[in-house]
């Protein structure tokens, strides 16, 4: 396993954002590293350790046939996450995780993911970004 990554469970990896091992540039910031990870993975979830909402997100996506990359962040790393799209119920910075990104775009948390699914827009979006084949 790469330096800077350690297995937390059978489906999650712990990423040490303070390590330069996952970077081409030793001075890459946590924000830059997170942006790079978002751009490299069609579906990625950023979560806190042992987050029950993240578990539900993973279950929903795996039921559909998608296995997202899951990155567990420490509380001090959560602030490096990009802001979710503007809405009336924008969470405070301490509540930004779990956050799912599909095709480089922040979908939001569990409620937003479930709403996208119930509206019938989740599967087409997953197909569009190549995370799921029609």
TrEMBL record:
UniProt domain Glutaredoxin: residue ranges: 43-77
Broad class of where this protein is predominantly found: cytoplasm
Gene Ontology CC, one term: cytoplasm
Protein name: Glutaredoxin domain-containing protein
Keywords, comma-separated and alphabetical: Cytoplasm, Redox-active center
Organism lineage string: Eukaryota, Viridiplantae, Streptophyta, Embryophyta, Tracheophyta
The organism's place on the tree of life at top rank: Eukaryota
Family: Belongs to the glutaredoxin family. CC-type subfamily.
Localization per Swiss-Prot or TrEMBL: Cytoplasm
InterPro entries, A to Z: GlrX-like_pln_2, Glutaredoxin, Glutaredoxin_subgr, Thioredoxin-like_sf
SUPFAM superfamilies referenced in this protein's UniProt entry, alphabetically: Thioredoxin-like
One Pfam family, short name: Glutaredoxin
């Amino acid at each position: 396993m790469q330096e800077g990554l350690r297995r937390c469970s059978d489906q999650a990896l712990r990423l040490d954002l303070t390590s330069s091992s996952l970077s081409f540039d030793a001075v890459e910031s946590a924000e830059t590293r997170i942006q790079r990870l978002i751009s490299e993975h069609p579906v990625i979830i950023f979560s806190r350790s042992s987050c029950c909402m993240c578990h539900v997100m993973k279950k929903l996506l795996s039921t559909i046939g998608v296995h997202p990359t899951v990155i567990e962040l420490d509380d001090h790393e959560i602030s490096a996450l990009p802001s979710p799209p503007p809405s009336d119920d924008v969470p405070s910075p301490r509540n930004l995780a779990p956050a799912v990104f599909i095709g480089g775009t922040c979908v939001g948390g569990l409620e937003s993911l479930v709403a996208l699914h119930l509206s019938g827009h989740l599967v087409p979006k997953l197909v569009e970004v190549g995370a799921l084949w029609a």
